[in-house]
Amino acid sequence: MKIHADVNDANEMIIQVIDNGSGIGETDEIFDAFVTSKKSGLGIGLALSRSIAEAHGGCLWAENNPSGGATFSLTVPLSSAHLHLERTGMLAGRERESN
Q: Per residue of the chain (99 residues), what is the pLDDT tens digit?
């Protein structure tokens, strides 16, 4: 598994989790509420995660990799990402921007 974080051309932070497993059947349906592949799963985790991403002006999606496995990608506008880092103190020791 690899985790990749970067800033894209749309001025968004993009975080990707990439694996080399068997992939995902229907990449869009897994984000529907109450869809699960687990025997005791509720099927709300990915639906809730996508809702949170969208509430912050971002997107969450999954794609199968051509060589196997899948990539989950999350984008959030830099302004939202910066505010979160500032609120949680993760910018400590770095110069903060003044608005």
A: 999 999 888 788 899 999 999 999 888 888 888 877 778 878 788 999 999 999 989 999 999 999 999 999 999 998 766 666 767 766 554 444 444
CA distances from 46 to 10, 37, 76, 85, 96 (A): 24, 12, 16, 23, 32
User: Which CATH homologous superfamily contains domain 2-87?
Assistant: Histidine kinase-like ATPase, C-terminal domain (3.30.565.10)
- pTM across the whole model: 0.74
